[in-house]
Amino acid sequence: MKRKLNSRRTIFMFLFVLGLIFIFFVGRKFHPETWNRSLILTPNGISHFRKWLDVSGGTKLVFKISYDKYEQVYEWSELTAIKKMIENIVLKNIDNRISGLWVSDYRAYVQSMEWQPYIVVEIGGIADLNQAKEIIGKTVELEFRLPNNEEPSYANKQARKKIAEDLKYEVEQNDWNISSFADARWSENIFYNHWTGVTLWQMPDLYKNKPSLLDIEKGEISNIITDTYDIVDYQDRSGNVKNETLYWYIFYRVNDVLKVDRETASVADVVDVAEQLWYEYEESVNKSDTAEIDSYNYVDGDLVYNLGAVVEWEEAYDIKVVRVWWNALLWASDEEIQAANKQKETTIQNVKNTIKSKDNFADAELLANGWIAKEQLDSLIPNFDENNTEEIQQYVSMWSDFVVYIRNKKAKDEDLFASLVVKNVNQESFESKMNSKVLYDIESVFVQDRETWKTAKSKNGDILNGAYFKYANTSQSQVGMPVVAINFDDKGKEIFCNITSDNVGNQMAIFVWGELQTSPVIRSKICGGTAQIDGDFTMESAKELVDALNDWALPAPLVLMQEEKISPTLWANALTGALIAALIGIVAIFAYMYIMYGRRCALVTLSVLISFIVILWFFMKLADYALSLSGIAAVILSIWMAVDANILIFERMREEQDKWRTLISAIDTAYDRSRPAIRDGNLSTELIAILLFMLGSNMFKWFGTMLTLTVLITIFVNVPLIKTLLKWFYRK
Question: Of the residues 105, 138, 171, which one is the last residue of a structural domain?
Fold first, then answer.
C-alpha cells in the first residue's frame, strides 16, 4: 500500500513539475508556410498561451462576392435567391477552412453596406494580415462552359462595355489591388496583364502603335479605350493557324517609367531595337563566328549576334518533335474508341505531311524545335533510333505517338555556333538606339467584345458551377492517364445530366482559376454525377489540383475590399474581472473549507485546486487551446465543480470517523464510497459539454471543449490526488 501511495505521489509530482515547465518555459512558433504551430523553448512561456479574438484582438476582413457571372445569366427576380444561396455556401466554406486549421476565434457574417452584401470575417490569433487574407480569401473557382458561336450583337457589346466600366470603377475605388478584380477571369475573355521592366516594343500593339497613350500621370487610371489591343495567332480545330484581332475595351495604369543606359547588349536588347527600327531578323547556325559569345558585330551590312556554341561537346540533332495525344473520351464505347484511334492515325499522317512547314497542329503538341542533345532526345523519346536515317520518323509510346523531323545532325567534336542575324542594318541609327532604353511598369485590364465560351446552362435555366461541387478525387482515364474526377451533389448531378443530354457532339470546357483545363467532346449524356478533367497530369499534379478543389472551391470569387486590426480593449475589463472572480473564488473556497472541515482539509483543497489549474494549463498549451472569455468562464465553473469531489469525500470521512474507524481506514472507505457519485455527476456534466460542442455556436463549442477537459482532469487527477494528499497530510 505504501509503495502504491509513493508511486501515485511520484506521478502527480511529475505532472505538476511538467506543467510548470510548460507554462513558464514552453511556447509555440507559427510557420506561415504550413500554418503549423510547433513547440519551442522560451524563457517567456507564460505569454505564449493562444488567445481568442475577444482576448487578444485580431483581424477584420471585408470581402465582396463577385456576382458578375450570375448577373449576366439570371433575371433580377431570380438573382436574389441565387445570391442568398451563394452567401450561405461561402460562409459554410469559410467556417470549414478556418475550423480545420484550428485558427483561434473567428466570426463570419453577411453585412449590407450601400445596399450591397459583404462577407465580414473577424479572426483572432493571427498577427499577420497576409496570412489571414491567404486563409480566408483564397478561392478556386470551378466553371463549366460551352462553345459560344454567336457573333456579338450591339447589345452584347454594350454589356461587355458595362463590365469594363464596372471593373474600372472598382479599380478606382481600390486602385491598390487591380489584379483582385480582373485576374483569373480568362474564361470570360477578361485579361489582366502586368508588365514590369519592359520596353515599349515588348508590349501589345496598342501601346507600340500609340506611344502617346503612356503619357499619363503615374498611378492614374486611364479612360476606357475602344481600340485594337493586339493581334494573336490561334489554331482552329482543323489545325490551321489564323490571326485574331483582340479589341475593344481596355484601361490601364502606368506605375513607373524609367530611362536607363544599356549596360549590356543582350539578345533581348538587340531584338528590341530591331523591332523599333522595323528590321527583319532570323536565327542561323554557322561553323564559325567572329564575335565573342553574347556580343555582336557587323558583317556585310548585317548585324550578327553570337548566341554561343550549339550543344558543345555532345552529339546533337536539329530536330522538330511533335507529340500526338489520343482524343479524350468520357465513358466511350468500344466503337467510339476505335473511331478515336482511326482519327489519331489520320492526325499523325497530317502531321507527317505538314511538319516541315507548320509549328502548330490539331490534337498535337510541339515538344522541341531546334538543336537538342542526343541525351535529352533519348529522355524525350525513350525508343529513339539513332541509326534511323529517315528525314521524318514516327515512334509509338504507351500514351502518345511522336513524329520527328530531322533537319541536321552534329557529331561530338563538331563546332557549330548559333547566331541572330539582323538584316540590312544602318549601324549609326542602330547604335544610337542601343545607348539607352525606357522601361515601363504597366498594369492593364482588357475586356474582349465577346466570350469564346458561354456559361453551361440547362434548358431550365440552371447554371452548372462550383455551387454544386461535392468533392474531387484522382482517377485514371480509359488509356491509363491520371485524371481529376469532379463529383456533384444531387442537384448538380441532375443539371450535368440535362446539359450533356442537350449538347451531345459539342465540347464542354472546364475552367479552374479561370484557366482552361480540358474541353472534351460530349459523346453521350452523362448522368452519373461525375465530370472528368483530363489535362496533361502527373499523379502529383493531379493530387495537387484535387487538394486545391477540395480545400478552396467556392461558387464565386471573393474580392478583398477592406482590412483592419481589431483591438481587444473592449474586452480588457471583462478579462480582468474574470481573473479577479477566479482568484476570489479560490480564496472563498479555502475559507469555507477551513471553517467547515479544518486546516488540513482546507490545505488539501487548496493544493488540489492549484494542481488542477497547473495541469489544466499544461494540457491547454499542449493541445494549443485558444484562451477565450467563454473558456475562462468554463474554468471558473469547473473550479467550483471540482470542489464537489472534495466535499463528498470529506463528508464521507466524517461519517466513517463517527463509526470509530481509524483515520487512514476512514479516508480509504470515504474515497471508495464517494467515487460513484463523483463519477456520475461528472459524466452528466460531460454529456452537456458534448451537446454544447456538437450543437452550439462557436462560443458554446469552445466552452464545451474546456468543460470536457476539466471533467477529465477532475476524474483522473483531482479525485485520486485528494486521497493521496489526505493520507500525506494526516500522516505528517
Answer: 138
Q: Is residue 627 located within the same domain as residue 716? A: yes
CA pair distance 528, 493, nearest whole angstrom: 7
Residues paired with 518 in a beta bridge: 510
String of DSSP letters for 131-148 = HHHHHHH--EEEEEEEE-
- Residues spanned by the domain of 283: 263-310+416-434
Give the Cα separation of 125 and 656 in Å (integer). Answer: 52
- 604 and 648: one domain? yes
Q: What is each CA distance from 651 to 515, 657, 713, 714, in whole angstroms?
A: 73, 10, 22, 18
What are the Cα distances from residue 153, in Å, to 71, 249, 456, 576?
Answer: 18, 15, 20, 67
Q: Examine the domain organization and report whether 646 and 702 are in the same domain.
A: yes
- Taking alpha carbons only, the member of 197, 199, 417, 414 closest to residue 296 is 417
CB neighbour list of residue 197: distance below 8 Å, 6 or more residues apart: 439, 440, 441
With b meaning 16 or more CB within 10 Å and e meaning fewer, what string describes 669-701?
bbbeebbeebeebbeebbeebeebbeeeebbbb
Tens of pLDDT along 650-707?
888 888 877 766 777 888 888 888 888 888 888 888 888 888 777 655 567 767 778 8
The answer on pLDDT for 570 being more than 50 is: no
Strands of 66-189, DSSP E: 106-113, 116-124, 140-147
359 three-state secondary structure: coil
pLDDT > 90: what percent of the chain?
4
Q: Is 17 in the same domain as 118?
A: no
Number of domains, the chain? 3
Say if 410 falls within a structural domain: no
Q: Which residues, at least 6 apart from 89, have a Cβ–Cβ distance to it below 8 Å? A: 467, 554, 555
- Closest to 187 in 3D by CA, of 221, 143, 130: 143
Q: Is residue 597 located within the same domain as residue 672?
A: yes
Does residue 75 share a domain with residue 38? no
C-alpha cell at 370: 531546334
Q: Which helix (H) or strand (E) element contains residue 365?
A: strand 364-373
**The three three-digit cell numbers of residue 600, written as one number:** 488540513
Q: Is 458 helix (H, G, I), strand (E, B) or coil?
A: coil
Reply yes or no on whether the pLDDT at 239 is more than 60.
Answer: no
* Cα end-to-end distance, the chain, whole Å: 17
| 254 CB-near residues (< 8 Å, 6+ apart) | 214, 216, 217, 218, 219, 220, 440, 441, 442
Shortest CA distance to 314 belongs to which of 382, 264, 404, 375? 375
Write out the three cell numbers for 554.
Answer: 467556392
* 300 domain-assigned: yes
What order of strands is seen across the sheet that includes strand 469-476? 469-476, 482-488, 530-533
- My answer on whether 578 and 646 are in the same domain is yes
Q: What is the CATH number of the domain that holds 110?
A: 3.30.70
Helix (H, G, I), strand (E, B), or coil: what is residue 364? Answer: strand
